[in-house]
Amino acid sequence: MKRLIQKICLAAPLFLLLSSCDKGFEEMNVDPNKYAEVVPEYLFTRALLDGVSTNFTGAAYLTIGQSMQHFATYKEVPAAGDKYFNYSYSTGNWNAYAGTGAGQGAIISIRQVIDKVSVNPADVNKLAAARIWKAYIFHRLTDLYGDIPYFDAGKALSDKNYGPKYDTQQAIYADLLKELDESIKALDAAKPTFGTADLMYGGDVTKWKKFAYSLMLRLGMRLTQVDAALAKTWVEKAVAGGVILDDADRAVIAYVDGSQTASRNFIANGLLSTDYITPGGDNVEGGKFAKTFIDYLKTTKDPRLNVISIVWTSTDGKTFTADTTTALQSGMPNAAYNNLPANFNTFSEPNPNTLLKYSAPLIVLGNAEINLLLAEASVRGWASGTTAAAAYANAVKAGMRQWALFGTGGVISEAKINAYLAQNPYKTAGTVAEQMEQIQTQKWVSLFLEDEYEIFANWRRTGYPVLTPTNYPGNLTGGKIPTRFVIPDSEETYNKTNFLEARTRQGGTNTLSSVVWWDK
């Protein structure tokens, strides 16, 4: 008992001491390396980077890049697009909804930015840019998965909503277009912007308007097979508003070759870490350029071939040279092998002097694509003030000039560009189907690596380019090119009722052969 009293007596002064300075514990309990509140500038930058980079290797490279026959592999495990195996590669884009790694949680970030800046009337430009970028993130997600959580998405932190309902893609598209329209009207050059936190435009309000109208044009054209009248309305509105037609208005994110992976171009980082690590010999995922792609570039005498593609040559088997000679370029057939082919080293790979540079830029939305959309609009009679032939020529020129952004190895002379157009003139006298095929196939080339997601969406909408499916034994699609990404199994566990309702609404399937609403 005596000892107990002594302990109490000794503890009393300590208690008084702690009581007198308890306010200090609040400051001591704050991590000095983390922000205590939302900093919209920081989160906007993160949302930009995460919005474009989510699951690049699994999705844009191994699933879309192979199925759109830009790339091929001899192996089976990474053959999501080559042999239509391993659907799990397509589930990774769902990480845009949550996560902490690179490319994850883009939706949460942009939602937090919107919530923060929406309370200050002076932040109209910040709010508008955030809403436009939210539309960009969600249009890519819904184009990959169809019906997804949209209106309730990203509200786990703010509203404790851990089971968001799935919205129809039709409703999502209607709201995305509304968001773009309202955001464009709200932009005000006299008000503050994100400034340097805006990696694409540095806060330039005029360029953000063109970006939003260009995205509106893309989304409007997506509706051609399900509601041509509505598509026409939005396309005409976008064209009249002013879209990205010139090099100076391209939306570009710059990267640097730094020690931090986050500062590097994620495409180069992804390709180098999964396949094209060392010259000569095998590649990790067994990847090379596809025969369909290389053959097309060679047949049309496209000067981009020598910018994009190399073959490793060696005289002693030890020292290799990246050779861009046209005659040497050769693509590997899709789904042709299940073991390392003897002639593997003769197949073409991405050029390390352009595509595989950590400091390579990313063209988020460029004038090559927008001019091609304008050409299509002209063919449909939805655009005045230009002809399809003129817009097509402008698109080709822009698509070739943009490689100069990748350094001296990407420069294509004006003489070569003009020679290509002379050899491959626009089919003014052709049928509508022939003109559409030429426009959309050019998009397949011009958007290569820049935006494989858009190539995939455009192919599903138009059917171009015409690609011959593979039918490798045991494939998951019955020998059909994949048409949708697979929503992760975890949704059936954690959000079962909403997931099953959406699956039933979309034909009862959740496979690589499922289709989205606008894909007819």
Largest sheet: 3 strands, antiparallel
Q: Which class best fits the helix and strand makeup?
A: mainly alpha
Widest beta sheet: strand line-up = 7-6-8
Strand content: 5-15%
Topology, pairings included?
Layout lengths: L1 H19 L1 H7 L11 H14 L2 H12 L3 E3 L32 H12 L6 H22 L2 E2 L6 H4 L6 E2 L1 H18 L18 H17 L6 H14 L9 E3 L12 H9 L12 E3 L1 H9 L5 H4 E5 L7 E3 L25 E2 L11 E4 L1 H13 L8 H14 L12 H10 L8 H15 L5 H11 L27 H5 L1 H10 L15
Antiparallel strand pairs: 1-5, 2-3, 4-9, 6-7, 6-8
Helix pairs in contact: 3-5, 3-6, 4-18, 5-6, 6-8, 6-9, 8-9, 9-10, 14-15, 14-17, 15-16, 15-17, 17-18
Keywords:
520 residues; mainly alpha; three-stranded antiparallel β-sheet; two-stranded antiparallel ribbon; 20 helices; 5% strand; globular
What does this structure look like?
Pfam families: SusD-like_2 (PF12771). InterPro entries: SusD-like_2, TPR-like_helical_dom_sf. It comes from Larkinella bovis. This is SusD/RagB family nutrient-binding outer membrane lipoprotein. By secondary structure, this protein is mainly alpha-helical. Helix content is 46%, strand content 5%. It contains 20 helices and 9 strands. The chain has helices at residues 2-20, 22-28, 40-53, 56-67, 106-117, 124-145, 156-159, 169-186, 205-221, 228-241, 266-274, 291-299, 305-308, 367-379, 388-401, 414-423, 432-446, 452-462, 490-494, 496-505; strands at 71-73, 148-149, 166-167, 251-253, 287-289, 309-313, 321-323, 349-350, 362-365. The chain has a 3-stranded antiparallel sheet with strand order 7-6-8. Strands 1-5 form a two-stranded antiparallel ribbon. A two-stranded antiparallel ribbon has the order 2-3. Strand 6 (309-313) and strand 7 form a beta hairpin. Helix 5 runs antiparallel to helix 6, helix 6 packs parallel to helix 9 (205-221) and helix 14 (367-379) packs antiparallel against helix 17. Residues 1-22 have low confidence and may be disordered.
